[in-house]
Task: structure prediction
Amino acid sequence: GRLRVVTVATGLEHPWGLDFLPDGRIIVTERPGRLRIVGADGKLSAPVAGVPRVDARGQGGLLDVTLHPDFARNRLVYLSYAEPGEGGANSTAAARGRLAEDGSQLSDVQVVFRQQPKLPSTAHFGSRVVFGRDGIMWVTTGERSQDRFREQAQDLNSHLGKVIRLTDDGRVPPDNPFVGRQDAKPEVWSYGHRNIQGAAINPTTARLWTIEHG
Result:
């Protein structure tokens, strides 16, 4: 079919992820570390305060943004990003915060997932956050690209190259497939991935679909 392309907003610097607020406005990330709200008229808000510090190098920075399924009641917004560590290391992380009614800031921000180990790489963060119909949350990661790291995608005791499955506050669901194994991180849902930068719930089957680069 034919597509009609309409410019909704201009002036964003490397927009990476977006979601729709209940009133139709768009909340969008800019990879350098800013979170903005786009009005119906295309006007950009000032950067939302309270966003976690990000490592905005290479493919890293502020990445996905997703609203909690019950956002209209709890105002919870989830962000994924490259979280800085020591000595130039970093990893994918996901945090949640409560968006003020006027959209000006996030409060009560807490990290709900940190990819381990942190490594000195600026590529392959994965980084989609998706909620299923049952309220369970998936976070996708990458294998960090470099030859010396990428084989950890096959290692269940590493978060590299995985789909992570969590409750909305970051706890491990008891029915995750590797819960109770000494050689596996219990957050892991699936493994052996390269760089999952696309994820969505199939509207018919309610199953998680992912797309990875390469």
Observations:
- The mean pLDDT is 97.
- The chain is about 5% helix and 35% strand.
- The longest strand covers residues 90-99.
